[in-house]
Amino acid sequence: MDSKMRKASFLTLIILIPFSIFAQQVKKDVKLEEIWASRIFAQEGVYGINSMENGLHYTTLDHGENYQEINQYSYETGELIGRILKSTELKLQDNSKVINIEDYQFSADESKLLIATETEQIYRHSTRSEYYVYDISSKKLFPLSNGGKQQYASFSPELNNVAFVRENNLFIKNLKDGTEKQVTTDGEFNKIINGSTDWVYEEEFSFNKAFFWSTDGKKLAYYKFDETDVKEFSMTTYNSLYPSEYKYKYPKAGEKNAVVEIFVYNLNNNENRKIDIGKETDQYIPRIQWTANPDVLSIQRLNRLQNKMEILNCNLATVSEVSYKTNVIFTETSNTYIDGSDDKLFYLEDKKHFIWLSEKDGFNHIYLYDLKGKLVNQITKGKWDVTSFYGINEKNGIVYFQSAETSPMERNVYSINVDGKGKSKLSINKGWNDASFSKGFKNFINEYSSANTPEYISLHAANGKELRKLKDNEELKGTLEKFNFSKKEFFNFNTSENVQLNCWMIKPPNFNSNNKYPVFITIYNGPGSQTVKDHFDGSNYIWHQYLAQKGYIVVSVDTRGTGARGAEFKNLTYLQLGKFETIDMIETAKHLGTLDYIDSKRIGVQGWSYGGYMSSLCITKGADYFKAAIAVAPVTNWRFYDTIYTERYMRTPQENANGYDENSPINHTAKLKGKYLIIHGTADDNVHFQNTVEMTTSLIKSNKQFDSHIYPDKNHGIYGGTTRLHLFGKMSDFIFQNL
Question: Strands (DSSP E) along 308-351, which ranges?
Fold first, then answer.
């Protein structure tokens, strides 16, 4: 090759290198099908984690192509100790039935397993399943019961019995002799419930299994709900030639609740006795639990206004009357409300103390009391909220918890001595951390993510030292790098009332500060909630990137009433839900409109459930500031929603009619100016389709044009098959056409 040819080749190479590098750096725009019809953005997790009693090992439910395995691992090394069970080994004598492991639990001595399969969802938390008992050493398998599917099957601590609910009655199966005892006989759909909760307790107090073994396994405490006087709600289902009606008991704000009673069944003498929880029946029992003493049952009693919480203790060993007597050992009151859906009460094994979580100093903190209800000391203090209590290692007196101390937008894991000294931050990474501790608190598994980083799951020693990673989602990180995504950025601003609001923003990947961009605001804003979190939001994060690629700036804001900023900020909305949140949303639109790169005339808003309620208020009461709004499954009048949630924040409509009416979107439809899309599933058992029907009626009465979209036989989550793809396609098209 002569010098001219070498020179030409060299120049060609110089020219081609930048194009080669450019080709390698070209990133793709995301498609809706990639978000909602494939799993390319799915995060890896660790599933079915169960700490073994020795605190040295844990089990997980691992999935193969056509099987599941329960495997045992070492906390310290991560090595596989052994396979406990593979689903292909689960065979009955006739070998005719394939049993998939959908959930599992160990007996107290870890010699047996309860395996749930063929699980049916009922409401948000409740399910029914076929349960099987598996003996690990003999490898024998047998069905728990042949009388139909069961709910909430649970081993007794003394190993020989399993309690479960079927058709609103409570049963006990004796594993030694195979006999099945029916504890209650009066269970009846839409009338009497034994051992499980009614709809409103399940939804708003966040539990469904309503029976509890004493620590010695000799007694079973359980709830009985009498729904006789609760009004029915009817939903039409359209899955057959002639649509059918599903009716269930749903107490709307101001209406009658079920009457709740607490019973204890004694296995030694087959005796059922009622607990005396007071003469007042219009009240709530949000939690019951056995103390470390197997003869002492603890009951939380909350008045209907939800501003007075009492702890009642019942000592079964010292009472011989027809009903067990109780005594009040602790009372807390509030000028607003006490949230009974939170786990607040924890009894120590020393049989002398309990831990209580309270906002009484203005922030949610941990307190230590003796069993007479006398305060021993406040364990955590500061102008920040404890957001989870993980437990206490009583041997060394160390308490473990999660808090928002660093920032309302972050979560970290901490330890502190029970005397309130020696607080230590255990989590390492800035962002969102949540822990799951082993038995004995020797180790914990930490789940970490940040706004732009998917989950990193790691094992730590109790002092916070990382021992090893479990899942790092490196494959997903690599996938994200291939797409034309922008970083989610946090910011805040002060309103005209000098209230600082936290926000995040995603800008278009080709952002140019000289251009004017439309803004899409996504919100929730319900009491104590947050959307502005340094946490990876999965598919929603990818959808927001999709909108940003289409030229929209995506924003979220936590208004007054949201969480992790203390009781005063959260409880400001008491008796007037929607008022201050709407003011803050208007302030947000005004602030965004002052930014040089934002088109103030093209600001839209979208929300689901409470967020749909808020987006509906924005486009009506805030009509001058929002061009378009999408409301998915919205509450449109608080009179349509349930007793526990609504009255917690609003009291009853009879007491607070103006609070209900002044901020219900159906009363403001005449103010609508922009484009409005309302979406609902007809089988929504939570926020009823009635909300959308009544909103539609009001819009028509006000002669306002709007768009609506209905999903037949879909519940509050609106999912299944291609439903989510269709839903987000509909919302995206609406945004493109109207914003």
Answer: 308-315, 327-333, 345-347
* DSSP 3-state of 67: coil
d(CA 165, CA 214): 17
pLDDT, position 319: 65
- pLDDT per residue over 267-304, tens digit each? 999 999 999 999 999 999 999 999 999 999 999 999 99
Q: Hey, is 293 helix, strand or coil?
A: coil
* Best CA proximity match to 125, nearest among 187, 197, 193, 61: 197
Closest CA to 336 of 113, 73, 571, 536: 571
For 204, how many CA atoms within 13 A lie in the half-sphere containing its CB?
A: 28
pLDDT in tens, 507-534: 999 999 999 999 999 999 999 999 999 9
- pTM across the whole model: 0.94
160 contacts 173 by C-beta, under 8 angstroms: no
Sign, CA dihedral 552-558-560-562, equals positive
The tokens describing 590, both together, are 């005004």
Tokens of 115: 């395996």
| Averaged pLDDT of the chain | 94
Intra-chain end-to-end CA distance of the chain, in Å: 62
Angle between helix 723-738 and helix 538-549 axes, rounded to 10 deg: 30
Measured on CA atoms in the order 102, 105, 106, 112, is the torsion positive or negative? negative
